[in-house]
Prior knowledge:
- The structure is a single chain.
- The chain contains five helices and no strands.
- With 136 residues, the protein is mostly helical.
- The radius of gyration is 32 Å and the shape is elongated.
Amino acid sequence: MSEDPFGDLDAAMGGGESASEPESEPEPEGTDATDAAESEPEPEPEPLDEIDPRERPAFEFDETVHKALYVLESVADEFDDIITYDVERELTRDHGLKGVTKSELHNAALDVATEHPEEIVERVLEQRGVDDENSE
Length: 136
């Protein structure tokens, strides 16, 4: 008996090769190594600079961070509706953007808020029912 307990399985199954010799894949008929080299090369992906900015997001998802925002459910629902049905629709229909991501939309919304802190102050005062003139 040989040292390999499965050594005679190939012979029993009709294969003449031993398990230690890998089986090579047959070349498709009518082709050889030179034909493969002469075939059309796969196109290289376009550099990001050359891709139309309407075709890709402004930034990659892995550049983002997840931050928790605590808002009233009604405000969150209205925000989601406006972002999805108004903003995203206008960007895709009217401006031809494709693949608009939620991270782009959320980033833009927060960016607009950071440009208008006075409106945030007014809204907090309004929510509390504090008259702006009486706040001092």
